[in-house]
Specification:
single chain, mainly alpha, Rossmann fold, five-stranded parallel beta sheet, 5 strands, 53% helix, 5% strand, globular, P-loop_NTPase, Sulfotransfer_4, P-loop containing nucleoside triphosphate hydrolase protein
């Protein structure tokens, strides 16, 4: 997400938020501990159920048309498709971000919080188990999701590098500025919209950058490596190497669906993405300020349904 703030306003807001002594790290640990406790309790008390089929893994990197593919899958009869924008924007999905944060720590060896134990299928099911398909933010975790769901169908969309890079640059640029990174995390914690902190880890982890400040330099090799890993790892019969310009036919053939009598969707271009980011950023800033000034109005953290 890109923050719609000029450098002076960023500095002012960061100083303002830092002047308030809030023990956000302890609160975060409490939330994670509570979530883990509930998970442990459920695992010992719930009867064993027949495993759901794995979700379709749409693992094209962000800004390769993931929102358009999500709409296409919904038209084809897969209504419940996970996308990072919905997870970032919807209050009722904020419980997912602490899980993504833990998944970063379990996946990316180059981030300081790496803990060395990969996420299991059961752990991924905690966040993705109810979805028909997953995309966008899920693609960052391709090297964890493919082993976790070895029988899943995988869709890889590759976009021309020269078009993809500037679009992805806009996504990660706020993660490369220390002050914007810290400000975003604080605003996320205060507003209750929790995507900034895990996204900082995602961008560094996926690119394998040695520090968050170096993410942009590592974008292009990360993109090439990501696409190669998927093509080299997924069995050919489970992989659709897809371009949005191919339209409905290869996608429908891969999924065993009839070709619908509607145009293939194309949504979320760079302009729309930027406007959406500004709306969400402004909403989070307003909520953070409200909750800072009037703590009694701050809602309880959203927990997993």
């Amino acid at each position: 997400m890109s923050w719609p703030l000029s450098p002076p306003s960023v500095s002012f807001l960061y100083s303002f938020f830092c002047s308030i002594q809030l023990n956000m790290d302890n609160q975060e640990k409490t939330i994670d501990s509570s979530s883990q406790s509930e998970k442990d309790k459920e695992s010992t008390t719930s009867p064993k159920a027949t495993p759901r089929p794995p979700p379709i893994l749409c693992l094209g990197a962000p800004r390769t048309g993931s929102a358009s593919l999500m709409k296409a899958l919904q038209i084809l009869g897969y209504p419940n498709v996970h996308h990072g924008w919905e997870a970032a924007e919807l209050e009722e999905l904020q419980w997912q971000w602490p899980i993504f944060d833990r998944a970063c720590d379990a996946t990316f060896t180059n981030i300081p919080t790496y803990r060395g134990k990969p996420f299991s299928r059961a752990e991924w099911d905690e966040v993705f188990g109810e979805y028909d398909a997953v995309s966008d933010v899920a693609s960052f975790f391709a090297e964890s999701l493919i082993p976790a769901y070895p029988d899943a169908k995988v869709i890889l969309v590759e976009r021309d590098m020269e078009k993809w890079f500037p679009s992805m640059h806009a996504v990660v640029k706020s993660s490369t500025s220390p002050i914007r990174r810290k400000l975003g995390a604080k605003i996320g914690d205060l507003s209750g919209f929790l995507s900034p902190r895990p996204c900082n880890k995602l961008h560094q982890g996926w690119t394998r950058a040695p520090s968050p400040n170096d993410v942009i330099e590592y974008l292009k090799p990360a993109y090439v490596r990501h696409n190669k890993y998927i093509r080299d790892t997924v069995p050919k019969e489970q992989l659709l190497d897809f371009k949005l310009s191919d339209g409905w036919e290869p996608l429908c053939q891969f999924l065993g669906k009839e070709v619908p009598d509607v145009p293939f969707p194309h949504v979320n271009d760079s302009k729309e993405y930027a406007e959406r980011g500004k709306r969400l950023g402004n909403k989070m800033i307003k909520l953070a300020l409200r909750n800072l000034i009037f703590p009694c109005l701050r809602p309880e953290p959203i927990t997993r349904p």
